[in-house]
Amino acid sequence: MEAHDIEQAEILWDYHRIPDVLRKADIIIGLGSYDTRVAEHCEQLLNDGWAPKILFTGAEGNFTRGKWSKSEAEMFADVAIQHGADASKILVETEATNTGDNARFCKALCQREGLAIASAIVVSKPNMNRRALATFHLLWPDLELVCAAPDTHFYHSPAPGHTPEDVVSEIVGDLQRIIEYPALGYQAEQDIPDAVLHAYQELVALGYTGHLL
Predict the structure, then answer these.
(1) Distance CA 46, CA 37 (A)
(2) Is the pTM of this model over 0.85?
(3) In this structure, what are the phi and psi dihedrals at residue 41, rounded to the nearest 5 degrees?
(4) How far apart are CA 80 and CA 41, in angstroms?
(5) Cβ 147 vs Cβ 33: under 8 Å
(6) 87 by DSSP, 3-state: which?
(7) Structure confidence at residue 182 as a pLDDT band (50, 70, 90)
(8) Cα gap 211→169, rounded to integer Å
């Protein structure tokens, strides 16, 4: 990648990632994806005592369709258990295929299980923090939410099987969804600084369009 491309991508990456200060919560919600380091981070938060349970959510999505023989949620549960999580403290929601489903179906599952959930740590890839925040704020508005993510980077430590260029196309697509989804009723509107919009437009012009709608 050219230095200019990396510079513009850093602007988007920093916008998407929300470095909230952790505080104890009723549950950890792990959003399924291709990056199992999210599951490892959930396990660490659980065993560090930040919440008493993990709820993994996800069937399959754009990046995991056909990748595994089981759902994202089940795969993440396996990874968390392998890294030391107590299986009895893990719930799985295996039907969600998008972030809106994640929010709606997790809320419904907690209600079915009789769990009184007023607060959650929502764990995702760094570039999904803002979309998760915007979606949960709209669809589960009374939930006190903290965003968290593994300490990864699009250029220095992309997930196995993904190149930096792949991730840049992904974060460009994520920004497009932040722009367009509020009008569709999918997520709450977010303030987008001019510098972020400019970086988005630059990267689209440079051809990082593989994840656009």
Answers:
(1) 14
(2) yes
(3) -70, -40
(4) 8
(5) no
(6) helix
(7) very high
(8) 6
User: H helices within the chain, ranges in order?
Assistant: 3-16, 37-47, 72-82, 99-112, 129-139, 164-184, 194-205
State both tokens at 105: 């179906």
Residue whose structure tokens are 């992309």 = 158
Q: How do strand 119-123 and strand 54-57 relate by DSSP bridges?
A: unpaired
In angstroms, the Cα distances linking 169 to 12, 42, 50 are 11, 26, 33
Structure-token match 């303030």, residue found: 191
Alpha-carbon span 159 to 177, nearest angstrom = 22
Partners of 119 in the β-ladder: 144
Find the length of the chain.
213
pLDDT digits over 13-30, tens only? 999 999 999 999 999 999
Please name which of 147, 139, 178, 175 lies closest in space to residue 13, comparing C-alpha atoms: 175
- Please state, in angstroms and rounded to a whole number, the distance separating the CA atoms of residues 77 and 97: 17
Q: State both tokens at 39.
A: 């599951």
